[in-house]
Design goal:
The protein is an alpha+beta fold. It folds into two domains: 181 residues, no CATH class; 96 residues, 2-Layer Sandwich (Alpha-Beta Plaits). It has nine helices and four strands. The protein has a four-stranded antiparallel β-sheet with strand order 2-3-1-4. The protein is rod-shaped.
Length: 291
């Protein structure tokens, strides 16, 4: 009889441990996946911003030396990520390919202008920053015109702000749920040992001494759950990188490492705090209240 009861208790204990590990794994996996999504969504939004081109057209009297000076200006600037010089002859060839006819035969002259297609860095693709860059460039008297899609810039930034706000709200909500789930699992695990806690307290054990083995056990379970979550996240990253290499998901290894380390630290911290407060609650209860 005693043997069967011990087996039952052992099975219940194993089930309790498994539920804690599963809760920690699921919660940390979701939080880690959300953090990786936030990082990569910023990368995607930056790539989209940097795909918006600013075209700078020069007057016909602009000589090669003036164009070379402008190239040097772009090289030393902080706002230009990439740039491409498009001569009036190259522009005419592009137009001919698009139209399908050589329009120069009808006009007799090339009306197009030498130009630069400039792709700005993502943090400069903001209405105020682009306006300041445009104002500065127009100080060059040889520049005929500067063209870029102002409405697209405003639309992109407005949508990114809205998406970022919702991501922040969802992140906060998931973090709150994460703490509740792990805390509930910890409390259930400690609840099964409430009589042991009270017995140790009645024979004179200090609260710190009683808490120590429970906290250490919970932290180990949190480490296991966090470790499984990290393995799952790494597996997903490798899968996405192999199937979608253009995203460059694994390029920023430092950020990924920080996120994975944060997942592990969160698992340890939450389980430690939850177990500490759960044991403290039962330590402060009277013996009659245990029932």
């Amino acid at each position: 009889m005693s043997s069967s009861f011990d087996k039952f208790q052992k099975r219940r204990l194993i089930t309790s441990y498994f539920s804690v590990i599963l809760s920690v794994f699921l919660v940390l996996f979701l939080l880690g996946a959300l953090a990786l999504f936030i990082v990569n969504s910023k990368k995607l939004s930056d790539d989209f911003k940097e795909g918006i081109a600013m075209s700078v057209y020069f007057k016909d009297e602009a000589k090669d030396t003036s164009l070379a000076n402008f190239t040097d200006e772009l090289k030393s600037s902080k706002y230009a990520k990439t740039y491409k010089f498009v001569s009036k002859d190259d522009a005419a060839k592009e137009h001919t390919d698009i139209i399908g006819e050589d329009f120069l035969e009808f006009l007799g002259v090339n009306p197009l202008q030498n130009s630069y297609d400039i792709h700005l860095r993502a943090n400069y693709v903001v209405a105020d920053s682009i306006a300041n860059i445009e104002r500065k460039l127009r100080e060059n008297e040889l520049i005929a015109d500067i063209i870029y899609d102002k409405q697209l810039v405003n639309l992109v930034n407005d949508n990114i702000k809205k998406v970022s706000l919702w991501i922040l709200i969802i992140s906060g909500f998931l973090a709150f749920i994460a703490v509740l789930l792990i805390n509930s699992s910890m409390r259930l695990s400690i609840y099964a040992n409430r009589f042991i806690i009270k017995t140790m307290q009645m024979v004179g054990a200090t609260k710190a001494f009683i808490r120590k083995p429970f906290i250490w056990r919970s932290v180990k379970l949190g480490m296991i759950g966090a470790g499984i979550a990290i393995v799952a996240l790494v597996g997903i990253l490798i899968y996405l990188d192999r199937n979608f290499p253009n995203l460059g998901i694994l390029h920023d290894k430092l950020t990924i490492g920080i996120i994975l380390l944060g997942v592990f630290g969160t698992g340890v911290l939450i389980t430690w705090l939850s177990t500490h407060f759960a044991t403290q609650r039962f330590l402060n209860l009277r013996t009659d209240d245990l029932y």
